[in-house]
Amino acid sequence: MERAPTMTAVPRDWEEFHPRPVSERVPFFTRKGRLYDCLFAQQFDRKLLDHLCRVADHLRAAMKTKEGALAAANLLPHKRAMLYFVQPSTRTFLSFLNACHILGLRTSEIRDTTTSSEVKGESPEDTVRTFSSYVDLIIMRHPAPGFVEKTAWVMNRAKRAVPVINGGSGSDQHPTQALLDVYTLCRSLPGGLDGKTVAFVGDLKRGRTVRSLSYLMKNYKDVKLVFVSPPQLKMEADILAFLKRHHIPYRECDDLTTVLPEADAIYMTRIQDEWDKANESKGMDYSRFNLKQEHLAKLKPTCAILHPLPRRHEIETTIDDDERAVFWRQERNGMWIRAALIAYIFGQDKEVLAIK
Amino acid sequence: MERAPTMTAVPRDWEEFHPRPVSERVPFFTRKGRLYDCLFAQQFDRKLLDHLCRVADHLRAAMKTKEGALAAANLLPHKRAMLYFVQPSTRTFLSFLNACHILGLRTSEIRDTTTSSEVKGESPEDTVRTFSSYVDLIIMRHPAPGFVEKTAWVMNRAKRAVPVINGGSGSDQHPTQALLDVYTLCRSLPGGLDGKTVAFVGDLKRGRTVRSLSYLMKNYKDVKLVFVSPPQLKMEADILAFLKRHHIPYRECDDLTTVLPEADAIYMTRIQDEWDKANESKGMDYSRFNLKQEHLAKLKPTCAILHPLPRRHEIETTIDDDERAVFWRQERNGMWIRAALIAYIFGQDKEVLAIK
Amino acid sequence: MERAPTMTAVPRDWEEFHPRPVSERVPFFTRKGRLYDCLFAQQFDRKLLDHLCRVADHLRAAMKTKEGALAAANLLPHKRAMLYFVQPSTRTFLSFLNACHILGLRTSEIRDTTTSSEVKGESPEDTVRTFSSYVDLIIMRHPAPGFVEKTAWVMNRAKRAVPVINGGSGSDQHPTQALLDVYTLCRSLPGGLDGKTVAFVGDLKRGRTVRSLSYLMKNYKDVKLVFVSPPQLKMEADILAFLKRHHIPYRECDDLTTVLPEADAIYMTRIQDEWDKANESKGMDYSRFNLKQEHLAKLKPTCAILHPLPRRHEIETTIDDDERAVFWRQERNGMWIRAALIAYIFGQDKEVLAIK
Predict the structure, then answer these.
(1) pLDDT tier at C114 (50, 70, 90 boundaries)?
(2) What is the CATH number of domain C175-332?
(3) A5-174+333-353, superfamily in CATH?
């Protein structure tokens, strides 16, 4: 794959490149007009989102038969992926691992840096480049913001480039989580996401998923957002400014019950008390932002209930049996859309659509 | 796969279900008259035992050629298994992992819960259901008694059921160990297990394997058992009562040498001092229950020597070279019979028998 | 595979066998005139080195197309390997793992002994034999010198032998590292390694790789060696004696700049301060043995720059972009030559050469 012509103007120095706006950095991670490294939610436009959803849908359907499954596993059996997960995250890890297996990729795992050569004084860039030597794809989760992007930068400048997928990078970006959320909304809502009202509930201030998902809303028409949270955990100003700039109507409130009847989808979230600075979550009555069995009667019959999981008490477990609860399917959707993304990066998306 | 009709009467509440006798719980883990979740040694009757042994034999033979191995690997390449081993056990883990690989399944591993989301306050049931989202089979080892069964219960009640195999659950059940022991006895004894005399030697009080294996003896005709142990480590009363109820003759003694000439098989076991309450094993002369080179002359020429391994000093290493020592084959048999079980659960047992 | 006739005279006792010279032990690890267990660099002669390099070259070329990759993966899909890496080494581990995957082998990993049954009082020999039960190949890295060889010895004497590859054994042997270094030199130097001048730079006293590589030089004609190191870290006397015995000319110096114009290849190494006894590395000016951008002009246009990696400051990162820097390719070469070695051990080397 060759670098796009726009790449010639890219600075050689990371320190100079990295502070640029995302929109200027995106082309460097693109090849032949196609996303090559998947790093930011901002890389997805409506056309790509619709396409990936269609590929994921098709893959899911194809996997229902042994023939379809073998056809899928025959797409990339000649490729090898490395899952470099320095930050613990079993569910994202398993989701990507099985997405790879669906497409036939062989996989290597690094789930702990203490076994790596970093201890011998090697630079992180050298370590990553070393590990990439053996594979054709890197899927990376790392606690340091920007590290995954820097890896993609380093790899793109090496003689042997390898695509990089961001599986969660510090507190800033987790693009495939946003992707699976959008996929679940589009699949679960009759007629798709256009024109729908989506309520986000809970810790909106610190939840990375609701932030990324809000960004992606600009790709859909006439979506209305309702932000339901304790006053201390309201959505941050940067997102609200973004929504205003893109003319996406929203309102904020702190009473879940009033929102139930109007929502086409409810996106529940867990309180992110691991980010507490002074135990501020302890004194909060978060139970007012939990979905309870008694609420079900007030919901629209087609309302989709989402949750990025893991949950604590945000959704009563008896609700799991309700037809509108889609959060378990949402989790599984992550595997399908990630498989679609990997197929796309390797130019196998049309081949997926051609199965059966 | 559909739930058998008997299932309609099953209580929705685990707390109500779990205290019932095993015989009443077994149907819930059965589908279309077939074992679906493998949880208890009690699920195996003679017909199923013979069938699984035959499938294992056939698989072993088929794997001797590349064509046969490829045919086996072509049975379940469209399925993905997760090995969820929270409790350390490398040998059982490797045995199951390679059993999966023989049949072509792709595998995911969880060998440590500290990397899981349990730390974020998720319930164990949610964690297991999450991990199961991505796969078609769960093989689980867990230190908490009943946890594996509860997982199977939760999964059976979910919209997307996934079979569960018990790879060792607390100190109570380890059904595939009993299965591989029976398989080894049937294979190693001329004419099979019916009519044979089996000596169990060592720590019979606390050895889970000898307990489970004793239960399975009721499936064979005219078997005689001899329990050889220090007085402090005799077989527990519940097993002896079970044997009486099923008219299986047994006798107890504490002198290994007197038993050697009559045994068709000797099942040696390690002292389980990890269950000591007050270092009671320290003062015991366990060496009297070790098999030594000098004993070999007294054994029948066809006597099979078994040991579930790992061993300490229960069998002198020079005995490994004797034709009657089958404990290394016994270990490998675990892989074959587990592969047979997995093939059976996925309805691929007849396909195994049809290879070549 | 049958034991070569010379094997009949081999002593049954490891304590008697192990102290013998390597040349006397090698036949025990050979079958039908072919290397069976790969334990020592001394097992490679010129014919085998040339052959393995040719197989590696062919495999690399074949893997450039999907058809070639599938043909390679179809060579050993019926075999299962176990990577038993008790000592941390992510890069060697990944290199072997992907070498296995290239040939289609399914893999099991043990990367930590705390999960094994060794804790229950099992002997290391029993543990290894247990793990080998499930697989067809063992690739082992172990901190104890001689342990890998002892494993191969134990396995060879068992009824079910399994080949063993040494992935690094204490501080003594790491034969596949020497193999990949030779492969890289042969590939990178115009006309191959015969007649060339190779400079080894850095900590020659404690670097295992330069020691093994020096041994292999006897297989090539008219090679000249230059050892460039601080006086405290000079090459050990045993290697120098070996070179004299085989009439391989060498000279020692401590000034890197004087060597640059004459070298056909420069092999840079890291200071091995983990072997320091009294922090002796701290006071040393190691920077005089680092390769810097300013040195490039003095190098021959075809000079190959190698490094076993990981590096600290031995090679300035700007040099990575120079055409003569082959250390990243060297790392990847490890995967190819290891795949070639595995194919050879399983008698699939001719099949590799027949691809396409």
Answers:
(1) low
(2) 3.40.50.1370
(3) Aspartate/ornithine carbamoyltransferase (3.40.50.1370)
